[in-house]
Specification:
This protein is α+β, with helices and mostly antiparallel strands. Helices cover 30% and strands 32% of the residues. A seven-stranded mixed sheet has the order 1-2-3-4-5-7-6, with helices on both faces. This is GNAT family N-acetyltransferase.
């Protein structure tokens, strides 16, 4: 599997992210949906990676700068047929390593609090993320779980 920075210009990543946003809209109330669309990811404060296996897109993830030393993990997604195959773990390990290299001292994230998101929360817990209060512009939300870790 190869993980690399992506400029978000390819058709396959546009379709992959559209499916992500559509899935989040189908399971999360609109006021609790925080998934970024393609345009919101194409900003200077976001670094976006894709994971490809033999050239096939199998996952993605990003970090968005919140402030000096602090970034947020965004747009973590694994191709549904590849869930539970190690793609997310490899991608998250890469993102954490790159965030350290970029000088970040803390990574935080928002994910869902419902059963659908239990595997995501377990993944983040495995990588030493702990639950925290809302950060940045987030507000308390029964549909959200907030997590953070020092690097």
């Amino acid at each position: 599997m190869k993980i690399s920075v992506d400029d978000l210009s390819g058709r396959d990543i546009a379709e992959f992210l559209a499916a992500h946003v559509q899935e989040m809209r189908s399971i999360t109330p609109l006021e609790s949906k925080h998934a970024l669309d393609l345009d919101a990811l194409r900003v200077p404060d976001v670094t976006f990676w894709t994971a490809r296996d033999a050239g096939t897109l199998v996952g993605c993830g990003a970090i968005k700068r919140i402030e000096a030393g602090h970034a947020e993990i965004k747009s973590m997604r694994t191709e549904p047929a590849r869930k539970r195959s190690g793609v997310a773990s490899k991608l998250l390990a890469h993102i954490i390593s790159e965030a350290r290299r970029m000088g970040y001292l803390r990574l935080s994230l928002e994910t869902g609090s419902t059963e659908f998101f239990a595997p995501a929360r377990a993944l983040y817990e495995k990588f030493d993320f702990t639950y925290c209060a809302p950060f940045a512009d987030y507000k308390e939300d029964p549909n959200s779980a907030f997590m953070t870790r020092l690097l």
